[in-house]
Amino acid sequence: MNNRIERRIVIAGAGIAGLSVALAFRRVGHDVIVVERTQSLGTVGAGILVQANGLVVLDALGLGNAVRAAGSSCRAFNLRDRHGHLLLRTDFDAVLPAQLCPISIHRAELHRILWDACAAAGVSLQLGHTVKRVEPNESQPSLVCETGNGEIRISGDFVIGADGVKSVVRDTGGFVSHLDPIVEGSVQGVAPFSLPEHLYGEYFGAGEACGMLPLGGAQTFWFWGGSGKTVSGIEGMPFPEWHARVCKSFPPMHQVLDYQKEWGSLVRLIHRSVRCASWSRGHVILIGDAAHAMSPNLGQGANCALVDALALVCHVEALPANPEKALKQFEQNRRPLVEAIQQRGHEEGVLGTQAWPGAELLFKLLIRLARFTSGARHRAEIRMLSGLDYEGFDLDAIGIEPPVPWLTHPLQRDYA
Ligand SMILES: Cc1cc2nc3c(=O)[nH]c(=O)nc-3n(C[C@H](O)[C@H](O)[C@H](O)COP(=O)(O)OP(=O)(O)OC[C@H]3O[C@@H](n4cnc5c(N)ncnc54)[C@H](O)[C@@H]3O)c2cc1C
């Protein structure tokens, strides 16, 4: 600790990536400022699945149990046909320790837990600051922000672009990147009641899918998704017409949609995948969706953002005198796992949005056949879906090296 260099870290975006990296840098004693374009941190979004990799990071930050208490544990996941008949059941708890089974939580709750921890740790949060551009400037990069009182420049030793899929830091920072063509979109919401156990799971139809999952606080997170074209096609559609269309294809969705009377606060997303040639330029770094937004299919977007955050801090702390090398190593260690998850999610998106005659029948058959997968392959599959690349439940297992002895909370290397 005595040889540590104290730095000023400037972060664009107070989403899951921005707040978690802010907290991790602050916990090791750096001066951290987060700028966020929205005026308040309100109750936005719907449900998010915090998976094993994200939980390991939250445990390392001392927030795992708060997240578990605010969410709902998913020990098993059921794939069903459009009428609700069970096709495949995946028991996470047969492979993962109970503490690392996915937690389904309202995004706003996860956000609140991270924000409360940031505030308690002394992170400075500037709301109503819209980043207009980044000025890379070698080792003292700056963010230029529009505020209610005009433009200001905020400089630091590092600037972190955690400003999501449409990242201004990425697009003005000279990063070489592209957005994949749109494959999928979704509508998501939260119903203020729980459902009988047999209704939870994901439902498949021709080129569309929907799902219902228990959320903390006796609520239900639900979603409906389809190809980008299908979801763009509902733009301007009256809510009752969409409700009738979805419930006709997926009768079990009556359970949550009958409660909803208008579009209101429902989340409508068109999903884009981002690919960047490099995640850092000089002392400007991209993390989370800004670096590698991905399909929602594996429920890994927020989890990869959490892992990025802690991995980045670990690498910078391990090589305090050589930040350029630290950033290169961060990317080298993280990229293979992130790209594997991104690719798998993309493939599932392409497959799941096929609507040609016979596609539904074929997918049902393939899902049923998956029951006969060998035990070892099944375990490997669950670890992959959980963002873990090999057997092991500590930070090494998610590609975070070197270890982080300076964290306030010890790592939970022994999940019982
Ligand atoms: C409002 C909102 C609701 C969401 N709801 C869901 C959901 O219900 N389900 C789901 O699966 N995923 C949802 N997501 C996406 C999910 O949170 C992310 O994919 C994942 O958590 C990765 O997070 P991130 O921090 O990298 O990006 P994001 O979560 O997108 O966070 C980026 C942050 O940067 C801020 N920002 C963007 N541009 C600027 C700028 N120019 N200046 C300053 N600040 C800027 C944004 O306001 C946001 O707070 C939502 C994202 C947002 C922003």
Provide structural commentary.
By secondary structure, the protein is α+β, with helices and mostly antiparallel strands. The chain has two domains: 8-76 and 103-181 and 272-351, FAD/NAD(P)-binding domain, CATH 3.50.50; 184-271. 34% of the residues lie in helices and 24% in strands. The protein has helices spanning 16-27, 52-60, 64-70, 107-121, 168-172, 228-232, 239-249, 254-257, 289-292, 301-318, 323-352, 359-369, 375-385; strands at 8-12, 31-35, 47-50, 72-73, 76-81, 86-91, 103-106, 124-126, 130-135, 142-147, 150-155, 158-161, 177-179, 184-191, 201-204, 209-215, 219-227, 267-271, 274-276, 280-281, 284-286. Helix 1 (16-27) runs parallel beside helix 4 (107-121) and helix 2 packs across helix 10 (301-318). It is globular, with a radius of gyration of 21 Å. The two termini are 31 Å apart. The structure holds flavin-adenine dinucleotide (FAD). Residues 12-18, 35-38, 44-46, 48, 107, 130-131, 162-164, 168, 188, 267, 288-290, 296, 301-302, 305 line the site of flavin-adenine dinucleotide.
